[in-house]
Structure formats: C-alpha cells, structure tokens
Amino acid sequence: MDAQTDGFTCATTDRGNPDPMGVYSGGVDLTSLNSCDPIVLNVYFWGINRPNGQNDFPNRADHVLCGVANLNILYNEFGIYFKYRGFEEIDSPTLPNDEDGYYVLEQVIDYFNMVTWATNEGFRKPDAFNVYLFGWAGFGGGIAPNLSGSTHCGVNSSGISKVTLVHEIAHNLTIKHTRSSTEHATRDINDPNFNADTAGDAVVDTAANNGFRDNSCACYPFVDLTTCSYIGFEEDNVGDLYQIFPIDINNAMGDAYPCRQIHLTTGQGIRAREALIADVQGNFGPTLTTIASLYEPYAGEYYVTGPEPNPYNPPLFQPGFNYRFLECSCNCPEPSPYEDVSFSYTNNSLLTISKDNTGFSSITHPNHSAIQIDLDLCEPYGQNTRRCYDNWNKAADSGTVTKFEDNVFNNNVTITQKDSLTINNPNFIDNLPQGLYVIDKNYNDGSTNQTVIQKDNN
Ligand SMILES: [Zn+2]
Predict the structure, then answer these.
(1) Is residue 55 domain-shared with residue 79, that is, in the same domain?
(2) Is 137 in the same domain as 45?
C-alpha cells in the first residue's frame, strides 16, 4: 500500500464491549445540555520530525491553529471548549533500519511505541490532550486508543486542519464510528428490532449503515460522491432498508471519506459530554481548565512599561471564537484579572474577529480594550467581557500644548506642536509657566490622551 495516498482512513478499532452502566443517556436533545456546566479541555500538539530534524510540512504550526479553531467551532455547540496550550516540534529517535523513525509510522504498533517513547522523554503533557502529528502512516491518517476515554491521538500532518483531527479527538471522547453490521435501521423505539441505543455507536441520531467504503476497491458503491447522497438499497440484518441522508454521509465519524465534514450529531456531542463528566477511567480530570483560560494569550507578551521591545511580539489569542475587543477604561497597565469586572467599557469594538478568521497574527488584544468572547454561558458566569488592558506607559510619538491665554476655556489659545523627546520629558509639565493648558499626546497604536493642567505660580 502506498501510505501517502491513503492519508484519511482511521486505524482506531471500535471497542466491542458494552458501555458502562449509568454513563450515557442516549439523549439527542440539544436543550438538555446545561450551559452552566461548560467543559474546557487543554490541548497540546507535538510535531514529529525525522531523526535529522526535517519534515515536509513547513506550515504545520499554522495548520495546528486551524485545527484548534475546528475543534472549538465543532464542540462549542455541545458546551466543550479547547484551550490551545502550544505546539512543539520534536525529533524522532533513530530506529534500527528506519531512517524516518517515528515520522513515518509503518504499523499501528509503531504509534503506540512512539507514544511510549514520547512519554518517557517528557514529550507528553499530563494535564492536556496530546495530539501527535506524524508525517504519514501505513495504516491511514489517524489513530486513537480504543479505550473508554483516552487523552492522546495521532494525526497525520496533512490532516491537522481537516476532519481527521476532530475525528480522532472524538474517539478520545468515546465516540465510535457510525458504521456497524449489527445496528438496525429502525429508529422507532417501539419496534422490537430497535437497537440503535446499544448497537454500533450507541448513538440514536446517527443512521445505521454497514459502512460506505468498500475496501476491496477503495470505492463507495452506494454513495454518489458528487452530491454525497446515498443511492443504494441495502438492508440491515433483519431486512429493513437503511435510511441514509446526506447529513449521515457527511458525519465526521463515517467512512465516506471524500464526503466527510467537520460535523457531529447532537447525540454524538451529548455522548462526548457525558463521557467527560463521568470520566470512568479518570483520564479526563487532569486535562480540565477554566473559562478564564480562554481569555489568556497562547503566545506573545503584553507591553507593561519601559521602551517597547523590538521586535515586539504582541499577545495572540487562539482562533475559533468570535471576539470583540471593546473600548475600556481602568488603571490597568497590565490586563485586569478575569475575576475583576470593576473596569468600565463601551460597545465600541476596536477589533472584531470572527471564528473563521485565519489571519492568526491579527488576533491580538489592542491597548485600551477588554476581551469579549461570544461564549454561550449561563447567568452565574456573568459578563463575557473581561480583562481590560488600558496602558499609558508607552512613550508618545508627538503631542500639542494648548495654552489658554485668559486662564479660562475660550478661543484665545496658543497651540504649540511638541516632538516625542519634549512631550515625554518627565520635567515637561514642571517646566511650564503659570497658566491653564490642555496637553494632547499621540501614540503609535493610534490612541490619544488628553490632560488638563492648571499651573499655579510657585
Ligand atoms: Zn476513527
């Protein structure tokens, strides 16, 4: 098999044993989700290189950010949020007779050997979902352990920004493939043949089917790939016709690979949430973090005081959310803590970012603004506008001094332009003669600041 032409299939085997009792409701009603119980998970990415440090994916870091956005766009609907904790490239060890090392995974066992090596080397975050990005594999595009709750998976480097990542994370969250030879077509719970709540993926709102892909021809005999619609008349094992719609063929956990989209059903999302809440294996607990973490940058630094560093790396926020950075005011040379909502703010957005934005360097926190994230949270979470950053420590670029000659605010004024050196001189105001002044300062980020000075005779 040519590994590089089969970069999309999944090597995860569905767990055969029945679900633990009392964990899954089988629910399919989105309104049953409790918006007072958001679940925020840390996620960390490792890019595997060849032993010589080389790889074939120069845009891997950007693709990781696309993947982070996809995870949030898909799972936020179910009250599950992913906090991006970082991406690191690591060189594979040299393996006997294998110059590519773990960069190319020949067999499934190589993935698990790689995870063992990475864990021993410290290339595994105990408090996060760990995604290992290999080059490509003989077994397909992705893999996750078939446990009822695991926190690592492998994704090929060309699949990070595609369905493969959300698919393997879904396996971590106990979501199975939608295909099954034992699940019956009926969705009528009064039909004696109804078994959708226990057979196959045990999710009722995914249609029964025994697999769209025929591996013997690597083709899809009953799917029209141009419309992603089902054109077969196949029966389940009690003789009922499968009822399959394009939305079922598009499912991220299906095997109509050319038709898959970043889409899960409500039932699949509820199953993921219930797995996280029950945490039967105890693996998920350490990966949990807070809504407040979503208001922290994943890279860069805030300017606080002194000269601006050159080059300056501004704080960057993860893609996949709708942001508005709202004009705010407080004594906050550093962003106010998440819990402190004593600052004032307006509805004037200095920067608006949509969840689909892929200009990652533009998702930063403008000075004199607070971060509003469009999270669907319940009342006890309070306002979604947090962390006012209102810093006036930067040196001004220029300014003007307006002297009111009659010592009252009228039109009898003298206006003097001042350069950066003069306007930033700490003795500048002390040196002004007696009188009434307005000082305007202009900053390189476009902001302006105005102060009134009454100089007495002294
Ligand atoms: Zn899979």
Answers:
(1) yes
(2) yes
The reply to whether 81 and 154 lie within a common domain is yes
Q: How confident is the model at residue 458 (pLDDT cuts 50, 70, 90)?
A: low
Same domain, 134 and 273: yes
C-alpha of residue 416 to centroid of ligand 1, in Å = 70
* Cα 171 to ligand 1 centre (Å): 7
How far does residue 237's CA lie from ligand 1's centre (Å)?
23
Report yes or no for ipTM above 0.95.
yes
Please enumerate in sequence order all residues whose Cβ is within 8 A of that of 434, keeping only pairs 6 or more positions apart, or say none: 455, 456, 457
Handedness of CA 108, 110, 111, 116 (dihedral sign): positive
Given a contact cutoff of 8 angstroms between Cβ atoms, the answer to whether 403 and 354 are in contact is no
- Report whether the peptide linkage leading into residue 337 is cis, meaning its omega lies within 30 degrees of zero: no
Residues 218 and 363 in one domain: no
- Same domain for 164 and 74, yes or no, is yes
Neighbours of 239 (CB within 10 A): 9
Whether residue 354 is found in the same domain as residue 442: no
Instruction: State which residues form the domain around 449.
Output: 398-455
CA of 193 to the centre of ligand 1 (A): 27
Q: Give the distance (Å) from ligand 1 centre to CA of residue 278.
A: 22
CA gap 244, 227 in Å, rounded: 13
How many angstroms separate the first and last alpha carbons of the chain? Answer: 90
Residue 362 · residue 403 · CB < 8 Å: no
Q: Tell me how many domains the chain contains.
A: 4
Residue 354 has pLDDT above 50, yes or no: yes
Instruction: Determine the distance separating the centroid of ligand 1 and the alpha carbon of 440, expressed in angstroms.
Output: 61
Mean pLDDT for 47-75 is: 97
- Pair 84, 46 in one domain: yes
CA–centroid distance, residue 177 to ligand 1 (Å): 6
Does residue 439 carry a pLDDT above 70? yes
